[in-house]
Amino acid sequence: MKRFFGSQAIDYTWTLQKGAAFVRNFADGFTDYTGSREENISRLRSAFKATDAIVIGAGAGLSTAAGFTYSGERFKKYFFDFQEHFGIRDMYSGGFYPFPDEETRWAWWARNIYFNRYVDAPKPVYQDLLALVKNKDYFVITTNVDHQFQRIGFAKQRLFYTQGDYGLFQSATGKIKQTYDNEKWVMEAMAAQGFIRDEQGRFQMPQDGRISLRIPQKLIPVCPDDGSPVAMNLRADETFVEDAGWHAAADRYAAYLSAHEGRKILFFEIGVGANTPMIIKYPFWAMTAENPQAFYACLNFDEAICPEKIRIRSICIDGDSSDVLSAIV
């Protein structure tokens, strides 16, 4: 345990420090070749069978492979009016747009939250991943905020969402260390814009295509504790609220790693890009290097690499997560 956490046995941030130290002292170079695609898929199947534990580290690429794209046809279908009126071209940049009033800003966020949090992903990527690990001893750490792991059936007690959740509000200042479920508000705000529920209860565009860019002033969300403005519980700056649930999940993640120290463990990284490598990628490299029983697998599109130091215990697969997970299943 001390090798991972020192005297801070339940402090998840020590994994970040471990990863940062590994990269700072790194001098052996990187490789993207650990065998042919067929060989790597075969090795990954074998690793799933042979390991005692699996730590999944999931980034935005996993949800993109599942069909949660933030631009293109999906964006045009649900946000065409925002594109026409404000020139917004994707869901991500729209979150930073200086809307003219709160009624418009929260109409935007209601749609963004609904279509990226309260619906299932178009492709069965998360289902395929669950099929691989559901009978295994696993834990998931993810920077994704779309809640797809829990929607599909991954055990809540085995999930750690480090960067927040589209389904939660927090106080805008971050001074109140609580978060608030926003599902009821989202459904009301979607209906107020003119979206219609279908037979399955899912919101769809009305047949005439007429929807509103604004919600009524009375629907602008406020903090239930003091009536102050709220914000999304998404990590963007120092105001991000790490509530009691966040800390409990962080402690469970740290305890899981501690309990499996020195054992056969697979660190399976999927869709993690270069934006936040210090949360998943670097710690996975460091913990693999320290444990001779550990294996590291990286599944990513155009970004599947590993340090030369752990190459013989690494599997790098460059490809679409949807195709590769389906092939493994």
Outline the structure in words.
By secondary structure, the protein is of the alpha/beta class. It folds into 2 domains: 2-64 and 122-164 and 243-328, TPP-binding domain (Rossmann fold, 3-Layer(aba) Sandwich), CATH 3.40.50.1220; 69-120 and 183-220, no CATH class. The protein is built from 13 helices and 13 strands. It has helices at 2-5, 13-24, 37-50, 60-65, 72-86, 91-94, 102-117, 125-133, 148-152, 183-192, 244-259, 281-290, 321-328; strands spanning 30-31, 53-58, 138-142, 159-161, 164-171, 179-181, 196-197, 203-204, 230-234, 265-270, 295-300, 306-307, 314-318. The strands form 4 sheets. It has a 6-stranded parallel beta sheet, with helices on both faces. The chain has a 3-stranded antiparallel beta sheet with strand order 6-5-9, with helices on one face. α2 (13-24) crosses α12, α7 (102-117) crosses α10 and α8 (125-133) runs parallel beside α13 (321-328). The chain is globular, with a radius of gyration of 21 Å. The two termini are 33 Å apart. 40% of the residues are buried. Mean pLDDT is 94; it is low at 1-9.
Features:
329 residues, alpha/beta, Rossmann fold, 2 domains, 6-stranded parallel β-sheet, 13 strands, 17% strand, globular
CATH architecture group name of the largest domain: 3-Layer(aba) Sandwich
CATH superfamily grouping of the largest domain: TPP-binding domain
What is the number of strand segments? 13
Shape annotation: globular
Radius of gyration: 21 Å
How many individual domains? 2
Q: Helix- and strand-based class? A: alpha/beta
Q: Helical stretch count?
A: 13
Q: Averaged pLDDT, please?
A: 94
Spatial order of the strands forming the largest sheet: 4-3-2-10-11-13
Can you tell me the residue ranges where pLDDT is under 50 for at least 5 consecutive residues?
1-9
CATH names the topology of the largest domain as Rossmann fold
